[in-house]
Amino acid sequence: MALDDHIERVIFTEQQISERVSELGSEITRDCIGTPTVVVGVATGAILFLADIVRNIPLPITVEIIRVESYGSGTVSNGHPTISSDLKTDVQGCHVMLVEDIVDTGSTMSCLIEYMKSKGASSVSVCTLLDKPARRKVHFKPVGEKGKYYCGFECPDEFVVGYGMDYAEVYRNLPYVGVLKPEIYKR
Ligand code: PRP
Ligand code: MN
Ligand code: MG
Known about the structure:
Elements: E1 7-12, H1 14-32, E2 37-43, H2 47-54, E3 62-69, E4 82-85, E5 95-103, H3 107-118, E6 123-131, E7 149-154, E8 160-161, E9 177-180, H4 182-186
Parallel strand pairs: 2-3, 2-5, 5-6, 6-7
Antiparallel strand pairs: 1-9, 3-4, 8-9
The site of 1-O-pyrophosphono-5-O-phosphono-alpha-D-ribofuranose (PRP) has 18 residues, from β5 and α3.
């Protein structure tokens, strides 16, 4: 069975994502010009979005990765995001732009914003491809004068995969965002 055959419905196509990423990139570029910025991708989910968004920000930014997980192999957050691989750059006094694939309960973003504050970031922005407001449990705010919230699309309240997002660590390599066929979860 090919990977595409596991998908019941495509929610955001490759084309839609690419157009929106380019719009977000232009907006971020306008806002960050002249501000030393560390763009931090939240691995593993954000790696595809990170690779695409930074190519749409033609400024002398630093690109970084932090690895955080709270979903494991299921479809529900355990509510306790764990940093399993840390930054290698000092973000003291920098503007940090957290790049996420999806904001769901908000606990990952809230935890990382607090973490960046504790590391001395002067401001923290969040750029997420998807936001599922229906599921929010933890509310968070960008930090500082430069802090802003950028969102690609509002996502329906369904478990989505692709473009970095997984179910049990599979489907991250799909170039679009979709919903799995129900029988996949039952295996
Ligand atoms: C997923 C997703 C976000 C987070 C969002 O990561 O990539 O990072 O959950 O959920 P929240 O708003 O409820 O915190 P996950 O923990 O599955 O790790 P992964 O990126 O390695 O898949
Ligand atoms: Mn993640
Ligand atoms: Mg995951």
